[in-house]
Design a protein that fits this description.
318 residues, 18% strand, 11 strands, 14 helices, five-stranded mixed β-sheet, globular, six-stranded mixed β-sheet, disordered N terminus
Amino acid sequence: MTLLRRRTLLTAIALLPLASFAQKPASTLRIGYQKSSTLLTILKVRGQLEQDLAPLGVKVSWHEFSSGLPLLEALNVGGVDLSADVADTVPVFAQAAGAQLTYFAQESPSPSAQAIVVRADSPIASVAELKGKKIAVTKAAGSHYLLIAALEKAGLRFKDIEPAYLSPADGRAAFERGSVAAWVTWDPYLAGVQRQSTVRILADGRSVADYQRYYLASTAYAQARPDVLAVVFEALRKTGKWVKQSPKEAAELLAPAWGLDAKTVELANGRRSYEVRLVVKDALAEQQRIADAFHNEGLLPRKLDATAVPLWNGKATL
């Protein structure tokens, strides 16, 4: 599928809920999230944002997406106002598509929270041995960049493997039935397959991909409601600290929301930093490396300046 056809399809998917959103009052903050959106999932379960935003007269509605790319498509077309954390690759693809999005927070690096896995009985012992193999990966996810970077480190190009672009659920199914030689995924999917199947980690992001997750808002919303972003940012920061200080309690809270057992959730959370901080331009060097890598492999239509993006500085959008 061409990039243009994929963008058209994703935009169509993102627009499906738009009719219902159009009736929402401006005082409703519409949040898009995915299964790996740990901190906002906790805030949702607790009803914390609803409490924190009540003094501003703002209500909250929650909208779940399968992965980061369709989530940012929805953000760009006005389907949601704020995106829960997405992997560092996703905003690069959105920027290439001309999306009007503002970075308003990030989590510091969690390189071991995504990995390339093979089955325990696989003869593949190194990334170099993936040459010519079919590999399951989610397009534009952080794991997509991990695969490109790990292949490059092993002296290979992305074209040296056969990508199978699949959602996390479909990727795991293909991996477990042996339709692909390896699967590249992230937590909590990584922790789930580690605990429920017999697998080996071939490589993770350490020394090749920082894996920083970003929170974004539509630029129009960021400019109109910096007061709301300030409340959300503080709630995220506090929740991130609580997860690291109270790992068992956090895992028990998340387990039913994720449909996983608490030990699997605790394993996943142990590999994420959950250190929420503001985004500064000087810290976007990894975003530029990601953009350059995808462009060099012919996966982005044009070369990007990944640092030429609006940033929220805690008070306003710059």
